[in-house]
Amino-acid acetyltransferase
Amino acid sequence: MSIETETYSALDAPEYAPAQFVRWFRDVAPYVHTMRGKTFVVGFGGDLVQEERLNALIQDLSLLTALGVRLVLVFGSLPQVNEQLRLKGYDFQFDTGMEPTSAIALECCKEAAGELRLDIEAAFSQGLPNTPMSNAQIHVISGNFVTAQPIGVIDGIDYKHTGKVRKFDITSIHKAISLGAVVLLGPIGFSPTGEAFNIAMEELATHAAIALKADKLVFLNQSTVLRDDNGHIITEIARAEAEKILKEKSIDPHFANLLKHTVKAVRCGVKRAHIIPHNLDGSLLLEYFTHDGIGTMVVEDTLDDLRPATMDDIGAILSLIEPLEADGTLVPRGRHIIERDVEKFTVLEHDGIIYGCVSLIPYTNEQMAEMACLIVHPDWQSAGEGELLLKHTESKARTMGIKKLFVLTTRTSHWFMNRGFIQGTLDDLPKEKQINYNRSRNSLIFIKNL
Ligand SMILES: CC(C)(COP(=O)(O)OP(=O)(O)OC[C@H]1O[C@@H](n2cnc3c(N)ncnc32)[C@H](O)[C@@H]1OP(=O)(O)O)[C@@H](O)C(=O)NCCC(=O)NCCS
């Protein structure tokens, strides 16, 4: 047999589409990078286990821990407790977990929590055969991390063994998750006198996220999502807006309960809180590794910093633009163009300082718009502000009936590609823009369908 060296040809490529694979890998790389060392608290109800979705969830969670995410897992057990009550011949059933817990119901809570804990530990221990996490060894640590106290008597109703969180053993939890173990918290806490209390999963997860100063709190819920008037899923919502919805709209009570807890977490400093459906395989991965996600994410009301520009902002906009014009990142525009187009600009302001801007130039005939002058001051970069400007511009364009957003860029192509833009050609642009295209700059064209 003779062995020769020859040029690699496209015919040698494996059968699966390599370009697609490479593109996918590059697309998720930024998310992978941002996850290392972040703390996530993930809460789910016993219904997920009942629907036999536990193993799929554990696979996805194992993948996150392999990427360096520090994980605290909080489980609920209402359907299992209700089942126990039914089997024992009791009529009473829990709905939210915040109902009074009798001594009998507490026994059912303990049994259900113990059984679920073992199921979850077993799922993490099975070596995950035939999965991407085959042979991964993940340690699960559960214990008496939660000190509870009784809710007490409210409006004359004695809540008996229903409790709330008094404090967490934060030091021990931090120690465990920093060693790569998953901390598992069940819906039972103990008072310093050794008394057990039934604690709602939502309450426990929210408290844990706040106490741990988590980067994310995630609730997996059955299937409900939040939609706007046009039927689109609201993928991101400011905390203040979510509070308004809770006050003014009539939404599914279980979803409202989760939303209330995400709002509380974000108000108390958790950076992002998500509610995602669990009935879609890989929903956790889709939420993290795709730009828009699939559920609803609540964030602090940073949108307050965004406002339309006025003539008073021209000096500040120019000082953001000028260094980038000087180094060739942006095409020189000149003061008179900015003055003429100022109403097309949005600025980011904090404490009176303009630290970012973007403009949206519509081409209504073609239902297209150009996003231009997207800038975040270097001192504020890499904190998600560019993303905020992009999201704002996208939703502004959508409300104007725009179907495609385009950008011309010489140095920022990957930033746009990571956010769903696809490279286009001059022919894809509106006619007027094609005529004005500056060929000597040879800017790349990126387009996103809205
Ligand atoms: C592009 C820009 C607006 C992004 O603003 P930002 O607030 O830093 O954006 P975000 O925080 O949402 O995203 C930051 C991420 O994008 C990455 N990023 C920044 N510039 C990038 C570029 N040119 N190419 C690829 N990725 C880039 C950062 O490394 C960071 O990744 P990390 O979080 O993994 O570290 C900002 O870098 C900027 O003002 N650049 C100069 C002006 C410019 O090029 N504008 C676009 C011209 S059309």
User: Anything to note?
Assistant: The first strand starts at residue 39 and ends at 44. The chain has 15 helices and 21 strands. The pocket of coenzyme A is lined by residues 30, 33-34, 324, 329, 374-376, 381-387, 407, 409, 411-412, 414-415 (CB under 6 Å). Residues 103-125 form the longest helix (23 residues).
